[in-house]
Structures are given as structure tokens and as C-alpha cells.
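Sequence, please.
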């Protein structure tokens, strides 16, 4: 039994690290794609590629799902994939990839907060304190802007709040998976939820954007599309299957703790790509990570 427990623990941590590397790299891929495509084009193409690659897994299991399950999977498709894809792309039109990755670290706290508000989970003083510290950090990052130093109030960067909204979506997504569709296999959750939002993303991409024109006539468009395709297939489809499996195997908070490591990967890629971090940014990053650690320490979601 101890060996089994040790193996399972190593497996859980292994999945956590792989997810961190994948999702931590997603911010730089979005940044590169935005050099050619608009935020809407990046977000919708990400969903189209992820949903399309998982269609073969989705179609055979449709007949085995109830209307109740389909309803929850539709919500998961929107809050776990569709809406965040557009929010992150929009945020990074005016926010560095490294700072987007840092603000994304709010996800574990949002898991607990959403669980307390809508899933009867317990919220403690430690969680409240962690939220306060983390939001202070986000406030510093937002007020400092993406490129400014100590001009604290001169460059209010509203785009950081788009990332905060995405973490709220992720918090709702994790709780729904854990408490409402526990009986469904992780790959089915991912495949069906993406399939259900795929048509909307495809209609928007091909009917309401200049994506097709850019792909044919704009230099670097194919390379940028390649970044989004990798983001959709690996960063969304494959990673969500892995993440949903973790949510079912461990606590939602442990699964969402992948965001402890994501900022480190995102910062590495950002600095490698020439992004500059100023003293206020480091202060904000420190506050976010400390706040998440304080709020997540010894916390559990329980019915």
C-alpha cells in the first residue's frame, strides 16, 4: 500500500509539472500569434483546433449522455475553454505574457471562492487573507501597467482584469467537474465540452473575422496559425484531458495548484523574449504567489 501511495503521489506531481510546462508556455504562444491575428481570431482558432482534434472521441459517446450531463458539459465548454480563450487573447493585446501568467495564479483561490459561493464548500479566514494579499498583488500589476516602472497610477492596465475574469471561469469549471460530472471520464468531458462550443467558434472565425484573408495574404500568418494550432491541440485539448483527470483523482485545489508553477514558466519565456520586469512587477508577483500560498495552505473543498 505505501508503494502504491508513493507511486500515485509521484504520478500526480508528474502530471502537475507537465501541465505547468504546457500552460506556462501558452502565454508566449498567444503573444506570437497576436503579431498577426486579432484577439478574437486567436481565441476562436484555439477552440476550433482543440475541438476538431477531439471530435473522434466525442461523437461515439454522445448517445450515452443524459440531457442533464449535456447541460453541464455545455457550461464546462464555455467557462473552461471558450470564454477564457477570448479573455486571455484580449488581455495579452496590452499585457505582457509573463504578467498574464502570474495573474493566472489566482485560479486556486477562485476554485475555493466559487466552491464556497455555489457548492457549499467551507471558506476560512486563511482563504480570505490569501485572497486579499493576492488581489493586492494583482492591483499592483494592473496599476503598474505592462511596461512602466514606479509610475504607479499613470498607466492603469485594465487588461489585467481580463485574466482575473478568466480565473473566475476556471474556478467555476473545476467545481462543476468535481461535483457535477464526477461519473464522466475526463477525456469525454473535454471532448464533448469542446465539441459543443466548436460550432460557435468556427462560425465566428470564418464568417466574422479576416482570418482566411490574413492566412492567404499576410506574411507570417501561417507561422502564427501554427502557434495557435499548437496552443489548441496541446495547450487546450491534451492539457484539459490531463487536467480533468487530475481533478477527478485529487482535490480540486491540488489540481488547480498547477498555477503555482505556471508563472515561473511564463516569466521564463517572457524574459527570454525580451520582456522587462520592473521593481513594482516583482512586488506584485511576490504578493500574488504569497497570497495564493496562504489561501491554499491546508485548505480543502468539502461538501
Amino acid at each position: 500500500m505505501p508503494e502504491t501511495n508513493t507511486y500515485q503521489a509521484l504520478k500526480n506531481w508528474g502530471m502537475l509539472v507537465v501541465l505547468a510546462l504546457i500552460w506556462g508556455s501558452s502565454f508566449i504562444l498567444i503573444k506570437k500569434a497576436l503579431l498577426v491575428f486579432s484577439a478574437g481570431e486567436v481565441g476562436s482558432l484555439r477552440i476550433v483546433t482543440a475541438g476538431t482534434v477531439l471530435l473522434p472521441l466525442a461523437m461515439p459517446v454522445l448517445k450515452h449522455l443524459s440531457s442533464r450531463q449535456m447541460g453541464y458539459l455545455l457550461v464546462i465548454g464555455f467557462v473552461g475553454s471558450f470564454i477564457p480563450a477570448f479573455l486571455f487573447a484580449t488581455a495579452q493585446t496590452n499585457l505582457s505574457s509573463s504578467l498574464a501568467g502570474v495573474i493566472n495564479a489566482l485560479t486556486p483561490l477562485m476554485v475555493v471562492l466559487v466552491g464556497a459561493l455555489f457548492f457549499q464548500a467551507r471558506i476560512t479566514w486563511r482563504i480570505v487573507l490569501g485572497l486579499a494579499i493576492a488581489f493586492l498583488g494583482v492591483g499592483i500589476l494592473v496599476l503598474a501597467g505592462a511596461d512602466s516602472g514606479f509610475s504607479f497610477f499613470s498607466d492603469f492596465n485594465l487588461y489585467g482584469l481580463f485574466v482575473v475574469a478568466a480565473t473566475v471561469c476556471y474556478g467555476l469549471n473545476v467545481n462543476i467537474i468535481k461535483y457535477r460530472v464526477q461519473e464522466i471520464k475526463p477525456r469525454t468531458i473535454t471532448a464533448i465540452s469542446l465539441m459543443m462550443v466548436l460550432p460557435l467558434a468556427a462560425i465566428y472565425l470564418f464568417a466574422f473575422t479576416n482570418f482566411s484573408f490574413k492566412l492567404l495574404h499576410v506574411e507570417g500568418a501561417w507561422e502564427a496559425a501554427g502557434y495557435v494550432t499548437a496552443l489548441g491541440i496541446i495547450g487546450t485539448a491534451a492539457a484539459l484531458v490531463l487536467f480533468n483527470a487530475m481533478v477527478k483523482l485529487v482535490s480540486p485545489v491540488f489540481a488547480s495548484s498547477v498555477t503555482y508553477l505556471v508563472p515561473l514558466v511564463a516569466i521564463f519565456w517572457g524574459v527570454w523574449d525580451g520582456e522587462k520586469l520592473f521593481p513594482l512587477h516583482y512586488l506584485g508577483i511576490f504578493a500574488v504567489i504569497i497570497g495564493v500560498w496562504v489561501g491554499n495552505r491546508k485548505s480543502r473543498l468539502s461538501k
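The longest helix spans residues 2-33.
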